[in-house]
Design the sequence.
């Protein structure tokens, strides 16, 4: 069991690298995501074909999974755009708003009862974002892009959970990558007309960074999550991923010396976000203890 928990925290640590790599890779965010999804789709197809695990799906099913993948692609585009417009700390902190948007969207999409407590906890996150927003006008565009990214990811997570119940995980990942790739291919000409992307191909150190992102932070991370979920409850896994922004911020401080850009307002904002996560975690565990079967 200790080994399983070590694997879990290894997966969280790996996830923390994605923001750092998004800043290191010099491609425009949309082109970066295109390459990430293209390489991941090819490698996933080869992996499943060699293992003879490829499943034939109807076109309707592939379209459904592909649509979920397009949401993931859009989240990645805005997430990396946020990092490139500001810094890694801003991008990952804004990602903490996923809980707020989930509290808003999930009752509508899944027709659940609205949770006032989750909404109130999320307001702490919003206050934290507001304080960070005030500390330097240079980062306001990055914050706006990060907020949009978190809203799209909340939609992706809700829809992915609903759709994922009907398909095998590894094959669904493949078709999500394919769907995101096709969707981005159609959208990039429009995107490029408004925001010129510059280069369409990696250069220099982009290659090893992109390879690490695809092999380790995309395919490896997803497969690691599948292994972990076979031994550890999904609830525990989801709570552990609250540490992802913390790992990203620590890595960015060491690699990019971002601690030099932070001030008291930023620290207070971060503290409020952490308090929000801790409170949500505490009440989630308390609720799980009362309802071990996940029912209310």
Sequence:
């Amino acid at each position: 069991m200790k080994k399983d928990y070590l694997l879990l925290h290894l997966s969280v640590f790996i996830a923390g690298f994605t923001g750092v790599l998004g800043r290191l890779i010099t491609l425009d965010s949309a082109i970066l995501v295109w390459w990430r999804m293209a390489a991941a789709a090819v490698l996933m197809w080869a992996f499943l074909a060699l293992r003879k695990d490829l499943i034939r799906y109807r076109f309707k099913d592939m379209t459904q999974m592909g649509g979920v993948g397009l949401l993931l692609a859009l989240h990645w585009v805005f997430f990396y755009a946020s990092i490139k417009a500001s810094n890694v700390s801003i991008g990952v902190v804004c990602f903490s708003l996923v809980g707020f948007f989930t509290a808003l969207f999930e009752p509508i999409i899944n027709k659940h009862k609205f949770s006032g407590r989750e909404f109130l906890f999320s307001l702490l996150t919003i206050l934290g974002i507001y304080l960070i927003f005030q500390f330097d006008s240079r980062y306001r565009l990055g914050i706006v892009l990060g907020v949009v990214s978190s809203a799209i990811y909340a939609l992706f997570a809700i829809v992915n959970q609903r759709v994922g119940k009907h398909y095998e995980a590894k094959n669904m990942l493949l078709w999500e990558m394919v769907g995101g790739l096709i969707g981005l291919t159609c959208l990039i000409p429009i995107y490029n007309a408004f925001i010129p992307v510059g280069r369409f191909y990696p250069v220099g150190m982009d290659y090893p960074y992109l390879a690490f992102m695809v092999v380790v932070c995309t395919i490896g991370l997803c497969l690691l999550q599948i292994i972990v979920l076979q031994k550890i409850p999904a609830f525990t896994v989801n709570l552990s991923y609250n540490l992802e922004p913390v790992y990203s911020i620590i890595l960015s401080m060491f690699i990019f010396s971002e601690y030099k850009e932070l001030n008291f307002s930023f620290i207070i904002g971060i503290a409020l976000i952490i308090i929000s996560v801790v409170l949500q975690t505490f009440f989630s565990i308390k609720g799980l203890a009362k309802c071990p079967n996940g029912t209310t």
Notes: The chain has twelve helices and no strands. Confidence is low (pLDDT under 50) at residues 291-296. The CA atoms of residues 62 and 175 lie 6 Å apart.
